[in-house]
TrEMBL record:
Keywords annotated in UniProt: Heme, Iron, Metal-binding, Monooxygenase, Oxidoreductase
Cofactor: heme
Family from the record: Belongs to the cytochrome P450 family.
Organism per entry: Dorcoceras hygrometricum
Top-level taxon in the UniProt lineage: Eukaryota
GO molecular function terms listed in the Swiss-Prot or TrEMBL record: heme binding; iron ion binding; monooxygenase activity; oxidoreductase activity, acting on paired donors, with incorporation or reduction of molecular oxygen
Protein name in the entry: Flavonoid 3', 5'-hydroxylase
PANTHER family named among the record's database cross-references: CYTOCHROME P450 98A9, FLAVONOID 3'-MONOOXYGENASE
Amino acid sequence: MGVVMVEYILGTLVHSFDWKFAGEEMDMEETFGLALQKAVPLAAMVTPRLPPTCYLGSN
């Protein structure tokens, strides 16, 4: 059930928002630690795609 919920939430985020890269160039360098992670975190600009009345909790 956890896999289904992750897919549902990811699909909802992709459908509900317009996603844009917030940088000039994507840095793919990695650093080592307990887990492999990006040296420079990715940043995204997110804007709602639908009118505010379509989102849960909007009046």
